[in-house]
Amino acid sequence: MELGYNPIWWGVVLVMVIEVGMITPPIGMNVFVLFGVASMSHIFNELNH
Questions:
Q1: d(CA 43, CA 28)
Q2: What is the pTM of this model?
Q3: What is the pLDDT of residues 7-32, one digit of tens each?
Q4: So what's the pLDDT on residue 11?
Q5: Which sequence spans correspond to the domains of the chain?
Q6: C-alpha triplet 48, 25, 38: angle, nearest 5°
Q7: What is the Cα–Cα distance from 9 to 12, expressed in whole angstroms?
Q8: Which segments within 1-49 are labelled E, that is strand?
Q9: Whose CA, among 14, 15, 16, 20, lies 20 to 30 Å from 6?
Q10: Contact partners, residue 43, CB within 8 Å, separation at least 6
Q11: Nearest-angstrom CA–CA distance, 11 and 49
Q12: Contact 47, 23 (CB under 8 A)
């Protein structure tokens, strides 16, 4: 609190950044998990819409 930020919002932003990192290259762990269920073209078509 002394630094001028709310820890709740810091946590929200941190979770959002982690989720973006999980779906984008070079890591893209969630894409590999989804690839086991659906084809890669289907996954990326759904992400683009």
A1: 12
A2: 0.50
A3: 999 999 999 988 887 777 766 777 77
A4: 93
A5: 24-49
A6: 55
A7: 5
A8: none
A9: 20
A10: 31, 34, 35
A11: 28
A12: yes
**Radius of gyration of the chain measured on its C-alpha atoms:** 15
Q: Which of 25, 18, 16, 47 is nearest to 38 (CA)?
A: 47
DSSP code for 32: H
List all residues 6 or more positions away from 31 whose beta carbon is below 8 Å from its beta carbon. Answer: 23, 40, 43
d(CA 32, CA 43): 10
Evaluated on CA atoms 38, 43, 45, 49, the torsion sign reads positive
